């Protein structure tokens, strides 16, 4: 694989990045067990195939919803937005990378063309209470967020027949989605 090309000069990173999760399974599916925080949602198919966690900035969320979470006009459409502080991940070398959606171009955050991707390598000690790791053998990274890494979550709903779509549903979260 060719090495990623470096992008334009840096801009300040946002305080928060967001993971969009389908309504099933519901995030926060398990609580802290012992002294370890359990995963709050299993890896998505896209995260599994990419071997990193796809995230979005607040301004990228509407586009990501439109591209990957199609609305069925005949039923209730629900996703969760998980808000994650970006600073703790920036302090860890190589964990938060700003890349094109396919991870072929990387570099400092040059505007909204690059997306935040999390490369979490700390897979040791992540087994459940029965000693079973939720990560398949072929994966080398942790592909889920722990409860202690998520500052908050909000449900985003587009009911059957709503014409406004995700953009309209996000208006109620404009003060939270920053």
TrEMBL record:
SUPFAM superfamilies the record matches? ADP-ribosylation
Q: Which PANTHER family match?
A: BLR1139 PROTEIN (PTHR34129), DUF952 DOMAIN-CONTAINING PROTEIN (PTHR34129:SF1)
Identify this protein by name: Uncharacterized protein
Origin species: Lithohypha guttulata
